[in-house]
Amino acid sequence: MSSRLEELFNDEKTTEKIKRKLPYLFQIAELESSRAGKIGMEVGSLRERILTALLIYKFGEENIETEIPITEAEIDLRLFGKGISIKTITGKSLNGVKLIWTVDAKKAKEFLESYYPKYDILLAQINWNGEGALFFLPVSSQLSVFKKIGREEYIKLPKERTNPRGVEISHKALSLIIGEKGSRKIAIEWTKREIEFNAFDRWVDYWRED
Question: What is the pTM of this model?
Answer without folding.
Answer: 0.90
